[in-house]
Specification:
homotetramer; alpha/beta; Rossmann fold; Dihydrodipicolinate Reductase, domain 2; seven-stranded mixed beta sheet; six-stranded parallel beta sheet; 12 helices; globular
Chain lengths: 360, 360, 360, 360
């Protein structure tokens, strides 16, 4: 079988590098270009010595190899670029004939106004928003199979949506669309590979803090998707309150979600919540619903594409608490892109991904 | 001036040892007995070598020195014992004539039924619940001055109550007593000094998880106190949903609290929330209200008795978000006990505590 | 092709579990028994939830399934047992007809006196010491192919021997056999999965310390092997001074080794040292010799079977400094056993191991 | 009593800030100027929010307040500046009449050639090298009392010298001056407060590595001082091999030192080594000699000015192993400067320092 020709634009950030890592053991993929503006001319393993002898491929700059050339020579290009840059680069890549999975926020919204307000940017190609498929295979698998442009979801949206969808995507919806609270914690790789004092070891070790407590961009992404999933095509029905925190570990993300059962829920219990989650995801490889009494821990999904979820009913308050743990670079970014790649190119979904769990 | 004679019962757990640490530089204190059943006969500095040369005092067992003797020879005994044990030991100490600050949950409730349901224990001395003063100097300073028995608050209750009190202790109350959500994160010292696999380095490092997600004992303690503070003498008006998490750092605790303004709040803004907090605590040494744009971080209170709080108004959802950070062993336990000690024995409140901040 | 039938005795310690992890993606292996005395009847994924859905196999006790049965139904048994226990179990397994890779120190020595003095135990089957092959494929590959009993090397010995062998296994030897100093640092998994206060998060985080600074068992193992490798069949020629340290990370080990060039070295330089290392290991998959100016870091080998080594000549003192980094559970234990398994059963050496590197 | 007027030049780096922290509770000090070029106009507590309410003093730039002014208005100026900068600033300060404790390498050498070779800089004021006193109170206490210029020692030199001095400062010397090996490990604050990718959390957490393995500047500082201490006025007699490593903790440093007893040592044993260390430091507050069987751990000195040392005799190899643990910012830098300050201005040496230990 011919291998799929894949290029990674922005391959040396943490997301780009994890895409590379994930594909390293994928039997159906051949790398064409790995780009880096900062490190062009160096080998990938010079930047990440962990891959010495495993991936010594030279990094190229898009000043030397045009997007047109990259796109023409690739079946798929994965872009790991800042928002505002992706929206300019992706159209060029698409025009050259390849398919694209983009990691930025630039193609994740259907409503361009929500995007422009959230990112404080004018979108140069709003017509692509309609075409772009939101890259959550558990929700949009069919559309992804033939998608030309995939907007890989944000990390916080992924763990929020996976946990809430079984309760929202029901007619009638089983929880109230109002009053959802999402309190989430990310490892430091979520901030990207940056020369910033605030992400230095001495500033973060033995610390823990909230950040972006109002107006975080992922809020609007979460709300638009949750609205769609709950049957509201306007994308406005759900207004979850979202608060991210930064914790002193490298990889992983945990969301603790609070919501209230709708009148249509009927008799409620922890067992019933878990049963709903289990049935909804019974055919999904990467969503693991934990049984009563077992709670997610980011260490159990670190390095992998798994997301562990569960729920409890809190009798004292009448609230449902949902918990989801994933690797922010795994199911929250790069490895979810590989899962989507498998959907797009006809591979079994776990191809290349099954070996990535970490024991201790 | 005569020094106050202080004994610590259970001095080698993390809370007991931090009480010792805090008192080490207190000019008005003299240690009488430091007890340890596990390590009796050893020196305190054998167990905590950090104090070699600073505190080489010998540990005694309560098998060898009776509670009666300890109480008789001490002005104050601080007990750092498990719940269910304190309720038996504290009455003996009180009978011998000393004052007591207890760290367990055994004397924190006014309603014995709530205690018994929460701790699944019968209380042997329910009549002491009425006398015991809840050891939050910011709320109960006057009562503490003359208290014979102080119930030092739990760590999660302290950071929850300090953040919420300015909005609840108002007539009319400024937030709805229903629907409060407290999502909190603790460092590992919160679990105590235990030989348990689940608290081993390899099981916790690079991990993050919720625990005790329903029915955690601190829920009822929080709710009873918040009810009192909000003017409800029954202790039942507030039903906050509380969820603790465990994070890979040693010391510190952060609470993220979600609540909604009551009809009586009037015009609401982040500025107004911060203004209310600031005014409420303007004479308090250890509560620092952070200005708009600055958020608490556990690293900034680590090792100290400070608690940093702030609040924001989330226009998108109409919710108030409050954040508080403290050291779980500091303001959350041992150092708060020393602040209370200062109140009880007439020292300026910061005596012995001002040097305990940690730079980097 | 028929799969090799493998059982793991002691599968839930960190070494045993990492053997399981490593084999999970090995195409030529089928698990027969995973034993655990502590957790018998539970599923492997109950103990390590990271493997939920990946390995839910039930754990059996050797009280219920005899060593004879295990050995008879397995082509290979991997034992991850304490020393003193292995020496009793392994003979029973061998008698039942299987091959064995043992992780304890019980079969690593040729001189039974050295073993007995080091471990303070009488060896019940000294005759097996002659037969056992020391499981370092880079040194004993040919013997391993047909070995019935393999003594998997200690973690400290592996990183010491791999670094020093190119300079010692030469005629004449290129460094002095006397005066070698090995200063090494291990992550906490090296201490095993234990309910001990000294390995708890709060006792180790933000700490660093030496331990076992004289008479550590790995000293004699290192010295016997280095002597053999240097051409001394008595096993006594090399007397390296060895000092281990414990550092606050989970996986990884770094050795800093100090030695002096022998008179036969000739002109010496960093380039020449690196050249010698490079040539010695040019056909080895898992030994990566780093070029001048690049130094090993445990993070680059974490999770994998790689060992990164390099050397420098210190002109100021005339000493050679060698550095090697490996994962203590990887090349230092479980994954080296899988590499050896591949040698024993005719698989390419990297089978099942290539996907185990960790990006960030 | 009048307070000593102290200014800190470069107060917001980790060393400068720890000097500030240490002085915060010193009863005999009054801050005059805290300078920062990067953060001028902000409050010290804006940069280190841990000090909010404790030290809100405004930072000034030396563009706005001249060195002449700073020096004239201060009894003592503590400089925490890069090498090459200090050598230009310190003479100006001295000229204005104050005393100076400098943290750079610029005044630590007696031999200007060694300095210039080590730092690859020409020294603008070599005549000051003769006057400067090396700021180790345990060795140079008398000279420090009246010193106008103190060169605060490097962190690695401090822990090396304190451990070795009792064996070297003897006539005859008790260890061979040749063949000393110093293998040392630093926490990340040792690298300073820098916006560099290599010190980011994700690049260091779960890692461990050597660096600067030949020609590290502290080598020559160590060797010059050890030579002096051993009675060699040329500063050339000792040629220790020094290798630093970087470990994933914030504060602390451990040195493992290997040396051989000289012919004059006589009968050797661990007991005798410890006895020598104990006697040498019997009147020192901050050097704690650990008894046989107890080894230093950086966690036990973290935050404080203590240095814990011990030694063992390794019968198998005939080597002496010495171990010392200190806080790299404590005894290794800022707090040692405060100890020296106490010597210079006539305070008891522990003034302001005794409260800085950290419990857990």
């Amino acid at each position: 079988m011919n291998k799929v020709k894949v290029s990674i634009v922005g391959s040396t950030g943490y997301v780009g590098a994890e895409v590379v890592h994930g594909f390293l053991n994928h039997p159906g993929v051949e790398f064409v270009y790995l780009t880096s503006e900062t490190f062009k001319g160096k080998k990938f393993s010079d930047i990440y010595p962990v891959y010495r002898g495993l991936l010594d491929k030279k990094l190229v700059s898009t000043e030397d190899v045009s997007y047109e050339t990259i796109g023409r020579n690739s079946d798929l290009v994965i872009t790991a670029l800042p928002h505002g840059v992706s929206s300019k680069v992706v159209p060029q890549l698409l025009d050259s004939g390849c398919r694209v999975i983009d990691h930025s926020g630039d193609f994740r919204y259907k409503d361009v106004n929500t995007y422009e307000k959230s990112y404080k940017l004018e979108h140069p190609k709003p017509e692509l928003l309609k075409e772009a498929v939101y890259g959550l295979p558990e929700i949009y698998r069919d559309e992804l199979k033939t998608a030309r442009l995939v907007a890989n979801p944000g990390c916080y949206p992924t763990c929020s949506i996976i946990a809430l969808t079984p309760l929202l995507r029901n007619d009638p919806v089983l929880i109230n669309r109002q009053g959802i609270i999402i309190d989430a914690v990310s490892g430091v790789t979520g901030a990207g590979r940056k020369e910033k004092l605030e992400y230095s070891f001495c500033e973060l070790d033995e610390g823990f803090k909230p950040y972006g407590v109002t107006g975080h961009r992922h809020s609007t992404e979460i709300n638009e998707q949750l609205s769609f999933i709950s049957g509201d095509d306007s994308g406005k029905a759900v207004k979850a309150a979202f608060t991210p925190h930064l914790a002193p570990f490298k990889r992983g993300m945990l969301a603790s979600i609070y919501c209230s059962p709708s009148q249509d829920f009927g008799n409620i219990s922890t067992e019933k919540i878990i049963d709903l989650l289990t049935k909804f995801y019974e055919n999904e490889t990467f969503v693991r619903v934990l049984p009563k009494g077992v709670l997610p821990d980011v260490k159990n999904v670190s390095g992998s594409n798994y997301i562990d979820i569960t729920g409890v009913y809190d009798e004292d308050t009448g609230l449902i608490k949902l918990f989801s743990a994933q690797d922010n670079l795994g199911k929250g970014a790069a490895l979810q892109a590989i899962q989507t790649f498998n959907v797009m190119f006809g591979f079994p979904e776990q191809t290349g991904l099954s070996a990535l769990t970490r024991g201790v």
